[in-house]
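Customer escalation, tier 2.

The customer says the design service returned an amino acid string that "doesn't look like it belongs to this structure." They asked us to rerun it and document both sides in this ticket. The original structure tokens are below, unchanged.
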């Protein structure tokens, strides 16, 4: 390539640099373009808040089964700085899910008259049919980029601790029953190769084929509680802190977290869905490469540290349920088996609202500082 006229790359116009930076999709690209030279730095904007974030709030009715109130988006760092995304939608004080860069919001935690998906960056709202006693909503894709090729799955309370799952597709007038076999509180939901996988707090895994026509049904049920307790080979048995599903680099993974001083506080496995509805966990994943996993309630996902410079590679980020307000996010380092704990924000310790982390939230595009 011949030498550029004038001052080379540093002579690109501010308008052109602004247009180029507007097409960048990763935080890392925005960081790099901002570091080229003084002219580029003056002509472009750096991220205002590095992704991902956490959704924090207070229990809507004193139970994790219901949406949270007083929700906010915060950085997963010491201090938990609040992220300003503009005015929240009026009249929707409860959040019942964070997925694909969208928040699911309702006007009442038990008997809503409005149920809305809201994308903060574009301020786009999508109204869904109302659903009583909703617990969470998870999306299979981004409605802004997936057109009509996405679905929403929701949990609905049935009794004190049980719930069923329902499904909605764009254009549907009502929700469709997905699995009428009641489970306990749904912990995480993953969409992988045309199927929805979800696991409840007791370790029951349901696999639903979303390609089986307009009326998908649960096709298989697996009990991880029959397998996971046998993974610990220590002299002193360690209780599981949680069992989660997540998709990373095209593979479905099972993550087991332990309480106490387990030699490996977090273990990652490739599941085998054997005959007779048996879950087998033989192959352990020791290295995620440049990726890290983000586990919380509802949606789980994997991000690359090369694209998201605020995160560390080969880690598991876990949105904790704060214990006595000591910490609220745990970072499991798979290469060293060290657990890094991000303290509960000091400014919130005296707050009687008991703010807790609810889920991870990754906006669909970088959020840039205003020039």
């Amino acid at each position: 390539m011949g030498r550029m006229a004038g001052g080379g790359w540093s002579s690109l116009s501010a308008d052109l640099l602004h247009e180029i930076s507007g097409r960048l999709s990763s935080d890392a690209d925005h960081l790099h373009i901002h570091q080229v030279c003084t002219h580029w730095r003056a002509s472009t904007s750096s991220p205002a808040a590095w992704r991902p974030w956490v959704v924090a709030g207070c229990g809507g009715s004193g139970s994790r089964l219901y949406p949270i109130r007083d929700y906010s988006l915060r950085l997963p760092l010491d201090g938990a700085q609040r992220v300003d995304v503009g005015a929240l939608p009026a009249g929707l004080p409860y959040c019942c899910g964070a997925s694909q860069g969208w928040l699911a919001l309702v006007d009442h935690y038990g008997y809503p008259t409005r149920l809305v998906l809201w994308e903060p960056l574009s301020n786009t709202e999508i109204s869904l049919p109302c659903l009583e006693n909703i617990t969470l909503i998870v999306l299979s894709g981004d409605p802004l980029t997936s057109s009509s090729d996405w679905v929403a799955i929701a949990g609905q309370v049935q009794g004190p601790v049980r719930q069923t799952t329902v499904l909605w597709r764009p254009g549907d007038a009502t929700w469709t029953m997905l699995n009428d076999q009641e489970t306990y509180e749904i912990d995480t939901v993953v969409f992988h190769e045309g199927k929805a996988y979800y696991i409840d707090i007791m370790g029951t895994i349901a696999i639903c084929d979303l390609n089986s026509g307009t009326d998908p049904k649960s096709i298989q049920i697996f009990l991880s509680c029959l397998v996971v307790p046998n993974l610990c080979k220590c002299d002193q048995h360690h209780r599981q802190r949680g069992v989660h599903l997540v998709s990373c680099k095209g593979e479905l993974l099972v993550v087991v977290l332990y309480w106490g001083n387990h030699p490996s506080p977090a273990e990652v496995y490739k599941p085998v869905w054997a005959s007779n509805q048996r879950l087998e966990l033989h192959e352990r994943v020791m290295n995620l490469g440049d990726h890290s996993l983000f586990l919380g309630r509802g949606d789980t996902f994997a991000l690359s540290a090369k694209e998201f410079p605020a995160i560390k590679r080969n880690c598991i980020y876990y949105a904790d349920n704060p214990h006595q307000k000591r910490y609220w996010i745990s970072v499991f380092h798979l290469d060293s088996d060290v657990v890094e704990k991000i303290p509960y924000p000091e400014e919130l310790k005296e707050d009687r609202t008991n703010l807790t982390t609810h889920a991870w939230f990754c906006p669909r595009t970088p959020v840039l500082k205003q020039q």
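Tier 2 assessment: The sequence is consistent with the input. The CA atoms of residues 112 and 131 lie 7 Å apart. Confidence is low (pLDDT under 50) at residues 1-5. Sent an explanation to the customer and offered a walkthrough call.
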